[in-house]
């Protein structure tokens, strides 16, 4: 089963995302900020991360930078920013930081699920061929 980690400080949004993925048959885990998200990543090793950017304690940019510098073993996990920061500069910064994709709120679940489906296909292909993920 593919496990998705949802990191968002807004509890209502986080619960909605988790519910959508659970209903779609995914395993889900959640965190309310980047620091807790990093702890969940280290403890549970999710297959995919959906992460807000603007959060307390550790924001999404800080989280992805922390992963790239101090936890390179986690850097191959597909990481999708899902944020209200819709301007081009933030999108470019997120992708340059190492995010696999960048989507903006309000959430279009059809697009989010299509992006995740692409990640799942790559994960499953890597597992079939024995490539380390």
Overview of the molecule:
With 133 residues, this protein is α/β, with parallel strands linked by helices. It has a single domain (3-127), classed as Rossmann fold (3-Layer(aba) Sandwich). Helices cover 50% and strands 17% of the residues. β3, α3 and β4 form a beta-alpha-beta unit. The model has no long low-confidence stretch (mean pLDDT 94).
Give the domain tally.
Answer: 1
Structural class: alpha/beta
Main β sheet profile = 5 strands, parallel
What Rg is obtained from the alpha carbons, in whole angstroms?
A: 14 Å
What percent strand? Answer: 15-25%
Q: What is the gist of this entry?
A:
This protein has 133 residues and is of the alpha/beta class.
Which tags fit this structure?
five-stranded parallel β-sheet, globular, 17% strand, 133 residues, Rossmann fold, alpha/beta, single chain, 50% helix
List the helices and strands and how they pair.
Layout: E1 3-7, H1 11-23, E2 27-31, H2 34-44, E3 48-51, H3 60-70, E4 79-83, H4 88-97, E5 101-104, H5 109-129
Parallel strand pairs: 1-2, 1-3, 3-4, 4-5
Helix pairs in contact: 2-3
């Amino acid at each position: 089963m593919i496990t998705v980690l949802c990191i968002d400080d807004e509890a209502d949004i986080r619960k909605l995302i988790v519910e959508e993925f659970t209903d779609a048959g995914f395993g889900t885990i959640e965190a309310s900020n980047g620091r807790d998200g990093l702890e969940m990543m280290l403890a549970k090793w999710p297959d995919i991360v959906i992460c807000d950017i603007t959060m307390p304690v550790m924001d999404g940019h800080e989280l992805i930078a922390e992963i790239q510098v101090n936890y390179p073993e986690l850097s191959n996990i597909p990481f999708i920013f899902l944020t209200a920061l819709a301007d081009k500069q933030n999108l470019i910064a997120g992708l340059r930081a190492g995010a696999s994709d960048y989507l903006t709120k309000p959430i279009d679940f059809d697009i989010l699920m299509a992006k995740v489906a692409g990640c799942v296909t790559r994960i499953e292909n890597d597992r079939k061929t024995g490539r380390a993920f």
